[in-house]
Amino acid sequence: MSQSTSIPKKQDRVRDHGFDNYMEAEKKTRKVLKFQSLILSQPSQTLPISRFDSLARRLGLGFKENEAAAYLLKFPHVFEIYEHPVLRILFCRLTQKALLQIEQEKQALHAQLPDAVTRLRKLVMMSNTGRLRLEHVRIARKEFGLPDDFEYSVILKYPEFFRLFDARDTRNKYIEIVERDPELAICAIEKVREREYREKGLDAEDVRFSFLVNFPPGFKIGKYYRIAVWKWQRVPYWSPYENVSGYDLRSLEALKRMEKRAVATIHELLSLTVEKKISLERIAHFRMAMNLPKKLKDFLLQHQGIFYVSTRGNYGKLHTVFLREAYRKGELIEPNDLYLARRKLGELVLLSSRKAKVDKELVSYRRDTEVDDILCVRPDYMENDVKDFGVEYEIEHDGRREGYSLDSDFVSDDIDETEDLDERMDEKEDTV
């Protein structure tokens, strides 16, 4: 497959800072979500501060001793630390704004459940055999907007669409489509082509098999590369929903069509996700079922104008694939309610803790009456006014109002503060 393309295979990877900054912000959100899950798993939805270190080490979050508990202080808009009235020790619970965000996400997830059923039908229809492993879909359920119990609330609830069975040879559970619907076998790129043709009046032959190409800033496009892309755009291909088992795939022309079909398959896979992004490792789970190439990362880097592969967010260990045409300046062009509900958690996380007045007692985990006049908790701040919960926030700090929004440069000075946490806490104690 790699020898059939007309586009040069070896391309220098060009970074797009809009997508990289998006992943840097999401790195914080993923850690916060794990702590949220720990708190919500308790019957009282509270946890003593002393237990966070052991639980964080069990989850493999990479915190040193006493760092996990101090990490919570960086997000006062999500976690609230208070003294237990009976035990007289510090406990942690979620703020009212965080609880409101969780409830909004649950409502958005339930409201879009019919669309999630359609997305799952299209996803299974894209496989060669009309079936997918249940475990592979379970791993990527959040990306496709499926609930945690989708095996019961989606698959078993709609027996007219899905069939669940166990394979005899592997003993794995599979999701099988009951009947292929021709109305669902329409790719998202086909609708985009129709819109481009009607709005811009492009040549029908050029648009017939083309993709939207938007190269990242700084990508060098030479004369011969531009010609190669133009030729590749005119190459016909089979639809991701079409069964190609009856075709002879040994010719060079068939290899070119199959390669472009792989681009269309990944494009459609990303279009079915809620946030138009998914990790490269989760795409690899569908590789055999959807005839995708082995070296997925090199294949995606060959088409940097259509996809963007970000290595940010987990120290280079995580590869996230974005659909470039769906984003503009790091924001989804056509947002949905579930995407907006999830972004609200990111807004709470990105509100800087430096603008919040935190009691010295909570930093050092001891009572010290001498610092009450220097640094103290604002009671009106800790009430967590739910009415101010929105896209923009204003926090009173040193007698002035400061506004913060998600569109600001939120990763400039607070991207990853876990490594120098001990040094920063020592500096605060010396200052006091």
Topology:
Blueprint: H1 17-40, E1 47-48, H2 52-59, H3 67-71, E2 79-83, E3 90-94, H4 96-111, H5 113-125, E4 131-133, H6 134-139, H7 150-155, E5 162-166, E6 173-177, H8 188-200, H9 204-207, H10 223-233, H11 252-271, E7 277-279, H12 280-284, H13 296-301, E8 307-310, E9 320-323, E10 327-328, E11 331-332, H14 337-350, H15 360-364, H16 379-382, E12 392-397, E13 400-405, H17 421-431
Antiparallel strand pairs: 1-3, 2-3, 4-6, 5-6, 7-9, 8-9, 10-11, 12-13
Helix pairs in contact: 1-14, 4-14
What report would you give on this structure?
The protein has about 425 residues and is of the alpha+beta class. Among the domains are: about 20-95 and about 345-365, no CATH class; about 100-180, Arc Repressor Mutant, subunit A, CATH 1.10.10. The chain has 17 helices and 13 strands. It has helices at about 15-40, 50-60, 65-70, 95-110, 115-125, 135-140, 150-155, 190-200, 205, 225-235, 250-270, 280-285, 295-300, 335-350, 360-365, 380, 420-430, and strands spanning about 45-50, 80-85, 90-95, 130-135, 160-165, 175, 275-280, 305-310, 320-325, 325-330, 330, 390-395, 400-405. A 3-stranded antiparallel β-sheet has the order 1-3-2. α1 crosses α14 (about 335-350). The radius of gyration is 25 Å and the shape is globular. Mean pLDDT is about 80; it is low at about 360-430.
